[in-house]
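A reminder before we start the practical. When you read a complex entry, don't treat the lines as separate problems. The point of joint prediction is that each chain is placed relative to the others, so the output describes one connected object in space. Small molecules and nucleic acid strands, if listed, are placed in the same frame. In the example below there are two entries. Take a minute to note the order of the lines before looking further.
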Amino acid sequence: MPSVATYATLAEAASAMTPTSRFLAGGTLVMRDVNYGDQGFDRIVRVPDPALKAITPDSGRISIGAGVTMAGILASRDLDFLWPAARAVGGPAIRSMATVGGNLFAPHPYGDLTTALLALDGVVHLSDSGQVPLDQFLVNRAGLVRSVSVIRPAGDAFRFHKVSRVKPKGASVLTIAAWLNRSAGRLSNVRIAYGAFAATPVRVTAVERALEGASLDQAGIAPALQAATDGLAPVDDALASGWYRAEIAPVYLRRVLLGEVR
Amino acid sequence: MAVEFRKDLFADERDDDLNEIGQPIIRQDILGHVTGRSPFYDDHLYDGLLFMRCVRSPHHHARIRSVDAAAAERMPGVIRLIRPQDVPVNLNTLLSLISFGRDDEPLLAEHRVAYKGEPVMAIIATSDRAALDAVARVRVDYEELPHVLDVEDALKPEAPVVNETYPNNTFDYHDRYDHQKLRFGDVEAAFAQADHIVEGEYQMSPIEQAPIETCGAIAAPETNDRYVCHTSTQALFFSLGTTAKLLDMPSSRLHFIGGTVGGGFGGKVDSHHEPMAVLGAMLTGKPVKYMWDRAEEMQVGAPRGGERWRLKDGVMRDGRIIARAFTGFFDAGAYTRLSSYAVQKATGHLPGPYMIPNVASNVYCVYTNRTPSTAMRGFGITAVDFAIECHMDKAAETVGMDPIELRILNAYRDGDMKAHRRAAKNCALIESCQVVAQKSGWPLSAEAMAQSSLFGGGIGERGVIPETVTDQAGQIGERKRSGLAPEPFAGATARGHVPAGTATDHPATGNAPQREDMEIEAERLGFKVTRGASAPGQTPASPMPQPQPAATVAPAAPRPGAGPAMPPAYTAPAPASQQPVAPPASTRPQPTPPTPPAAPAPAPAAEPYKPEQPFQRGVKRPGVSRFISGSRRR
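Here is the predicted structure of the whole assembly.
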C-alpha cells in the first residue's frame, strides 16, 4: 500500500521524487492505479500549493497552472477558447478533479485537453523554472509541471473537435485541434494536432505545411487533406483500429477546417 | 412511442384476457432500484471481512513448472493462500449437473494454464490491496507452450492440445462424432439440381456481457456448520449445486442468497466465485469476499463465444431454396462451460424459419486458448440467425428477387416438417414480413401480401421427413489424424439411406424423440406413426400453397399416462440398424475424471459426497409438457 508525502512547494517535491513515487494532482489517473494494485509505485507525493491553480494572462499568451482543473477552466472567462476541450474530458465528477498537469500525462486515448494545448503552441514550465515546448515534452513526459502557457487565439481561429462513439462521456477515437492563424486572408503558421491517434497527442506537421499560404476553402485545403495522416502511425485500440482512424482523419479534418462540424 | 398491437393476426388462436402482456406494469424490483435500496451482494459488509484475489496466467498456454509463494505468504495482511490442492474436487464441467459432457475444468489450474488470465492460486488478505500486493509477489515458473486462437486452426492435425479431456480440440457428440450432425433429405442431389449455388461465410466476435456490478460472492460461516453465500449469480441453485460438487459437501450445508444480480445477461451463470468464496470461508473461518475488478471482468469473464458459419444454398430461379448446408464453429475457449449445449441449440434451430427440404449441417464446439465462453442472450441462435439472414439477402440478390418476398416464399407455414423432425406450429414469419414491409413503406406484390402462415403448410412433401442420406465422416479423433475438411459429407466414403418418414438411432437423423420422462406431442412428430394409422400431413401433393386450412391439426394421439411408457404414436427403431449403435449418453456411466499427471496423491478422503439420485430436469405440472411450452397458440 503506497505511503503519502505532502510538500509545501513544487521544488521540494521535485527533489523528493524517487523512481517509485507518483505525483498526485486530481487523482483521476493515480487513484485508479492505486485501486487496481499497481506495483510500479509505493509512494504518493502531493503539493497543496494554491499557486498551482493560478491562471495568469500575459500579453498575447496565458499561463495556466498545472493544478487548474477542467472545472476551473470552465469557470474562467479568460480561458473561454478552451471550454470545448475541457468539456470533452470525462463527466462532471472527473472534471471537478482532473487537472491540466495530469492531462499532459494521461495515457492514450486520453489527453483531449493536451491536444488543444498542443495546437495553441503550448509551452511547459517545469518545477526547476525550465521550459520546454509541449511537443518536445510529450516525447518523454518527465518532470513536475508548474504551468502551461498557450497563445490566446483571436476570433474563430481556434477549432476543436472530439470524435467519440459514446456521447457525451466517451473516450476519444480521434480529437482534432487546429489554430488557424491568418495573415492577409491566407493561412500562415497554422498548428494542427491530433489526439488519440498516435501514442501521444501529436502535431501534424505535414498538414501544417500543406496549409501554409492556403485559403480556407474546399480547393485550398485539398492538399492538406491528402496529407492528413502523413508521417503518423495510427494506433489500434479497443475503440478503433489504426486503419479506421486513418480513414476518418481526413473527413473530420475537412469538417474542422471548413467549420462544418455540427 | 406507443406500442401497436396487431391483435387482428391469429385472433382466433389467442384468448385476449391476459393480465400482463399488453398491460403497463411496474417491475417488481424497480422501486428498490430507483431509490437505491435494493441490496446487492456487495452490500453485505461483514465485520472483519477478508478479501480474495487470484494469481493469473500471463500466457495463453503454458505448463506450470513451479509456484513460489513464500514471499507472498510473508506479506502483511495475508491470511491464507489457496492452492489447487486445497480444492476438494478440482475438476468440473458446468453441465455435469445434467450429465452432459466430462469434467474438464479445474477451479484453480495446477499443472497447466490454457488461457490468459486462468487462475492458478488465490490469496486471502485483510484488505483488497494487501491481497493484490501479495499476488504480485507470487513467482510462477511457466514453460510456455504453443497456443491456438482460431477455431479452424484448432482442428488441424498439428494444432496443440488445448484441453486434455478433449484431446481433439472438439467436444465429443454422442460418443461418436467430433461435431453435431444434422441430415435431412439429400443436399448433394439438390445442389446438383439447383439453378444457383450461393455461398457465404460469416464471423461473429465474442461479446462481453459487461454487467454494471462485476461478478462476485461473499461467503461466511453460519451456525450448524453451514456457510452463507451472498452472490450475484444468475442461477442460484445451479451455483449451489456446483459449489457442493467442487467442495465435496452436501448442498444442505450451503445457504445461498441471491436475487439481485446487478446485470447478468448470461455472464453470471459460470459459478466460479461461489465455490471460491465458500472455500475461503471454510479455510479461514471468516467472511470472505471474492469479486472481479473491471479488468478481470473483461479479460477472464466468460463472453458470448465467437462463431464462424459457412452457408451453402441451392436456389432455384423462382427463389425457392431447395438445399442448405451449414458448417459452424463455436469457439468454446479453453473449457466447455455451456458451449457444447449452444451447438445443439443452434443445430435445432437450423435451417432458420424457412421450409427447405434438404438440410445438412456439421457444427463444432472447438477448444482454443481463449477465454472460455458461456451464455449470453440467445447464445447458439443469434449468431447463426445473423448468418442466415445475411445469406437470405445474398440469395435474393443472386436470383434478382425482392429480399422480403424471398423470405415469404420460403417461410415455414403451420404444419411444415422442420429439419429436426417436428411439424412447425405457431409460424408467424410471413405476417411479420408483411407488417414490417407495410410499416416501412416497402412495396410487396399482391401475391406476397396474400400469403399466410395458416395455409399451404404441411401439404404433401412439406409435411413429411424426406428420404435422408447419412454419412459417418468425422468420427472422434479422425480429423486429428487425417485433416478432414469440416463441411458436411466431406471425406465421407459411404452413404447411408434412411427411408422417408422414419427414425433411426443415428444422431444426425433423430433418435428416440425425447427422454422417457418427457411427454410427447405425438401430433407433431415427423417419425412414421404406428403401422395402420395415417401419418400427419399426408394429404395429396399440391405444388403451390393453397388457401385452405392446414391439414395437420390431426387429433392428438391419446396422451400417455404417467410413467416412462412410450405413446403408441412412437415406433421404436428396429434393433438391427445400418449404423453402429452407441448407448445413449444419458444412460452411459460418466467416465472418471482424468487424474492430473504427477499430482501428489491427496489423502484418501471419505467417499466423496454423491447425491442419492441424479439431477433431474423438468417440472411436473398436470397437463403440461415438462419441456415443450407449446401452448402459445392452440
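Discuss with your neighbour: The radius of gyration of chain B is 27 Å. What might explain this?
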